[in-house]
Design goal:
There is one protein chain. The protein is mostly beta strands. It has one domain: SET domain (Beta-clip-like), CATH 2.170.270.10. The strands form 3 sheets. The protein has a 5-stranded mixed β-sheet with strand order 1-5-4-8-7, with no helix packed on it. A hairpin with a 3-residue loop joins β4 and β5. The chain is globular, with a radius of gyration of 14 Å.
């Protein structure tokens, strides 16, 4: 399980995101740095924006908000695409799939969103 900048995102911009009150960056046992719950998070809570859609460049990472790691079996969050209409996406949001305890790493199953870099065989589940 590794974090890699999204290869399918056409441009990565150093845009400082507001991680907000629910998440913090910390060293990950999975890979490098990850996002961790700063407090208990209930199921269905939007944690923060991870990407925004730019008309010319496509999906753009919001750094450090997009530094969540991949785990298919332990995913506790999902990336939800917000759209004005089906052909007009606006942003991607990190949303909790279940209750998450304070200190727990926020993990996403990358295979659930084709816009994200897909896991490689060398990644550890």
């Amino acid at each position: 399980m590794k974090f890699h900048p999204d290869k399918r995102v056409t441009k990565i911009v150093l845009m400082e995101g507001d991680i907000g009150d629910l998440a913090a960056l910390s060293e990950s046992k999975i890979e490098g740095v990850g996002l961790f719950a700063k407090e208990n998070i209930a199921k269905g809570i939007t944690i923060h924006t991870t990407h925004f859609h730019h008309e010319e460049h496509g999906w753009v990472n919001v750094i450090p908000n997009c530094k969540y790691n991949h785990s298919k079996p332990r995913a506790n969050c999902n990336i939800v695409t917000l759209e004005v209409s089906p052909m007009n996406p606006v942003s991607k949001e990190l949303v909790s799939l279940c209750s998450i305890n304070k200190g727990e790493e926020l993990l996403v199953d990358y295979t659930q969103d084709n816009d994200l870099e897909q896991p490689q065989d060398s990644w550890v589940e």
